[in-house]
Write a structure and sequence with these properties.
Blueprint lengths: L12 E5 L11 E3 L4 E4 L9 E6 L10 E8 L7 E9 L9 E8 L5 E8 L2 E6 L5 E6 L8 E9 L8 E6 L2 E8 L9 E9 L6 E11 L15 E10 L6 E8 L5 E7 L14 H9 L3 E5 L11 H15 L6 E11 L1 H10 L10 E5 L10 H8 L8 H7 L13 E6 L7 H14 L3 E6 L13 H14 L2
Parallel strand pairs: 18-19, 18-20, 20-21, 21-22, 22-23
Antiparallel strand pairs: 1-15, 2-5, 3-4, 4-15, 5-14, 6-11, 6-15, 7-8, 7-14, 8-9, 9-10, 11-12, 12-13, 16-17, 17-19
Helix pairs in contact: 2-3
């Protein structure tokens, strides 16, 4: 389920540990407080953060090396809670496990689950009834950047009713994990800081923006725009089969109407949400005076094709219906997406005519031509058996390369020659085929930017190229 699809309309922030009091009064207990200092920099938001400095002499009663703060919770069977906190690592921690946040029972002190680091590797671990590493990804904890953790827990003693979801920096790491989250009669507490085996080294991290709430929308990390305007979040645009799909919208300051982009995230069709991967593009669009909508869609393998395509179409219909409210210029409406989202917008774009509901389509490094060797995507997303006699026909029917029409909207393809996930040649072939058919297509070739917007965001010349093309096309 997408990152915000679980959010409720009725919500409440139950507790904040954001240090904005200038002291540690928001926290129930401090373990080895000599290693804790409220500071003004670096901070995730507001005015203060917590500096956690651990030394070999910082020992707990159990003999472990630890400097932590503790938040005692009030929990009942069946409660849904959302927890968030942000950490900043000045440099990578040791490759040995470092627990950065744990849920533990009071009195009996049984650890239930933990977020931990091994160098730059992020891990989520459950401890009951035995220790299991549920998620581990190398390179996720980059030093010098803030990282946002969000954990959703449905508290229950029944393993069939207890539930855990985990997000790291907006990307879902653990989805719908069923487990007993209440272990005994003792109320859990949340502990943050550094917990490790005794060692001779000193280490540091900074902690900010700790929250407990009843809704995911209340624990969202800030989505910051430099341009003046209004950011509106968690707006429902569709409810297929009872599943709530939401979008976020940015409306520039001023009278409008404004050129507008609908943005579709990537994630291999199986992960991500409207905040995953796309914030660099959102900022570029906002700075250029565009309104934008970033959308959720249903994910595979739970939802097979064409669910995600239908959701993009539903978002387009919703935006057009609400154009006046959000100052959308319907003659300058663009559909853009990256990676899996690039495929989705490319496919949807083939259904429209030049001068119609879509003024332009901009796929970033998207697939345009699937083949039978892409078995994971075929089975998980499309539900196609690659060994079936009609598999080739079915694959061509869902590949934009085979759906080109002369009167389709203008396309801009953006792709790096060194993309390790989607071959650059796919964009070349798509653009050549569109041009041959009499449709308008341009390909912006980049060098050394790989796959994703991580490097693209640091190349202003590419931002200017994109905005220049859009302004010329939308005149």
């Amino acid at each position: 389920m997408p990152w915000l699809a679980l959010a409720c309309l009725l919500s409440e922030v139950l507790w904040r540990g954001d240090l904005e009091t200038g002291n540690l009064d928001q926290w129930t207990f401090k373990l080895n407080p000599g290693g804790l200092e409220v500071v003004s920099e670096p901070k995730r938001e507001g005015f203060h953060a917590l500096h956690v400095h651990i030394r070999p002499t910082d020992l707990g009663k159990n003999g472990l090396n630890r400097v932590e703060v503790n938040h005692k919770m009030t929990i009942a069977e069946g409660d849904d809670r959302y927890y968030a906190w942000s950490i900043y690592l000045p440099k990578a921690l040791s490759s040995e496990p470092r627990q950065l946040g744990t849920f533990e029972t009071s009195t009996s002190f049984k650890q239930i689950m933990a977020v931990q680091a091994r160098g730059t590797t992020f891990e989520f671990v459950t401890r009951q009834p035995q220790t299991v590493v549920r998620y581990s990804r190398e390179g996720k904890l980059t030093p010098g950047l803030w990282h946002d953790f969000v954990i959703h827990v449905r508290w229950s003693r029944d393993p069939a009713k207890g539930l855990v979801d985990v997000w790291l920096d907006g990307d879902r790491a653990v989805s719908g994990l069923s487990m007993a989250t209440l272990i005994d009669e003792n109320t859990p507490f949340l502990q943050m800081g550094i917990l490790r085996q005794p060692t001779s080294s000193e280490e540091d991290l900074f902690l900010d923006r700790a929250i407990e709430a009843t809704s995911l929308v209340d624990v969202l990390p800030p989505l910051e725009m430099n341009a003046p305007g209004e950011l509106k979040r968690e707006i429902e645009f569709s409810r297929p089969g009872g599943e709530r799909l939401t979008l976020d919208a940015f409306v520039p300051a001023g009278k409008g109407p404004f050129p507008t982009a609908i943005v579709v995230h990537g994630g291999g069709f199986t992960r991500g949400d409207k905040h995953s991967y796309v914030p660099p593009l959102l900022r570029v669009l906002a700075d250029a005076g565009f309104a934008w909508f970033t959308i959720d869609y249903r994910l595979a393998p739970r939802h097979k094709f064409p669910a995600a395509v239908d959701d993009v179409e539903a978002a387009l219909k919703w935006v057009r219906t609400h154009a006046r409210q959000y100052k959308v210029d319907l003659k300058r409406l663009v559909l853009t997406g990256e990676s899996a989202g690039g495929y989705l917008v490319s496919l949807v774009g083939t259904r429209y005519k030049r001068g119609g509901a879509l003024a332009a389509v901009v796929p970033f490094y998207g697939r345009h031509n699937f083949d039978l060797s892409k078995s994971a995507a075929l089975t998980d997303f499309f539900g196609i058996d690659p060994t079936a006699p009609d598999a080739g026909k079915k694959v061509r029917a869902v590949s934009p390369l085979h759906l080109i029409k002369r009167d389709m909207p203008p396309y801009l393809l953006i792709h790096s020659t060194d993309d390790p996930q989607v071959p650059y040649a796919e964009s070349v072939k798509m653009c050549e085929a569109m041009t041959a058919a009499g449709a308008r297509c341009e390909l912006f070739t980049t060098q050394g930017l790989g796959h994703g917007l991580g490097k693209w965001k640091d190349v202003p010349a590419e931002h200017q190229r994109l905005i220049g093309w859009l302004r010329e096309t939308l005149r």
